[in-house]
């Protein structure tokens, strides 16, 4: 495809959030004419930002995507490294569980600041136009047309060669594709909600150790805390909705926190806890799967529009960013041919994004329950040991997901194989220890352990000589 043909191609990116703005940068680098339509106002001009504010955990996949557009160093410099989980027990005892090796860490990043930086990067491309306050009304991929509604409240038809749906978990683009034959879709609201609280700075510094993701695991619910550059921590309480509904008064909230998170109350402050808890109701979390991610050569879904996931593996943004990077790599491979690139993107990406969706569900159980188990700690230490002695053969699941670009579904397959190896190894050594212990016990009970090997023959000899059998035990000597 020649450069003049590329210049003529117009791309409409629906959604100016994290994935939409990153995608606009990738597409602009290819000299497409890019128009980004965002329903909200420009968050750089807004007095307050509505929507999700859960802190983001930036890891290797997301960093590689940012590196491809030259933003990695800028974004990383604004993050706070988290090298381990810090587990807070009911007694107040704290214990660290490293994420990987000493050189491996994830970064606590502000969602708002990252979105602003990406929008600033988008606007540096002369072939990109941003349209804030423009809501998508209609999407007609076959006709290469979208209809948007701006602040003038007059619907406007826009023609384009490619529609890129990056408009989130409740995607309007996806809702139009759902009407197409053979488009599969499923969604699941988990029975848990989340609520955000804040631990303010203490004496001008962090109130807790800053380079950790703090977790208060309580089996059926948990609270986490991520550090911010202003020395505060953003706390998120994840809990079943029925438990939230039981906390109706300030005294009930305080009693609940003193019972389950006693060391957090002085850090948050009783008055702030009473006020912040009732500012907003608990928010829902949805998991979305669909297939395929494209429609012919005219439309493609990325990020939450294609695969909204729960936040418990810290991979929602990273998976969305990797979507953009994979699509860009496929555009290189197929020389910008959308007829080849879009089907291959769906074929390649669907099993991976479905896999990370399932892993995120699993990791919630691990974070709120398994981390309390000595058996879990033992297995984690065993995984780190095996990885240290066989780094290319045995790689912990978290390392594969967070610190590499091993495909998500391949990481799951490899993890299941490794779990079988560990289980068989534990069973083998457990059996060996049991047999050895039994042998030593028997040996300690008998001063002549070799008699056990001679005794059956003695029984036979004695029977021949006397006509009866004398069964002697070790303690009969």
Would you write up a description of this structure?
- By secondary structure, the protein is α/β, with parallel strands linked by helices.
- The chain contains 17 helices and 19 strands.
- The strands form four sheets. A seven-stranded mixed β-sheet has the order 6-5-14-15-16-13-17.
- Helix 2 (18-29) links the parallel strand 1 (10-14) and strand 2.
- Helix 2 runs parallel beside helix 12, helix 3 (60-68) packs across helix 12 and helix 8 packs across helix 10.
Keywords:
17 helices, six-stranded mixed sheet, 19 strands, disordered N terminus, globular, alpha/beta, 477 residues, single chain
Chart the SSEs and their pairings:
Elements: H1 3-8, E1 10-14, H2 18-29, E2 33-38, E3 56-58, H3 60-68, H4 72-76, E4 80-82, E5 84-88, E6 94-98, E7 106-109, H5 111-122, E8 128-132, E9 135-140, E10 145-149, E11 155-159, E12 162-165, H6 172-177, E13 184-199, E14 212-217, E15 222-227, E16 233-240, H7 241-246, H8 250-260, H9 265-268, H10 270-276, E17 283-291, E18 294-295, E19 299-301, H11 304-307, H12 316-333, H13 338-368, H14 374-389, H15 397-402, H16 408-445, H17 451-466
Helix pairs in contact: 2-5, 2-12, 3-12, 8-10, 12-13, 13-16
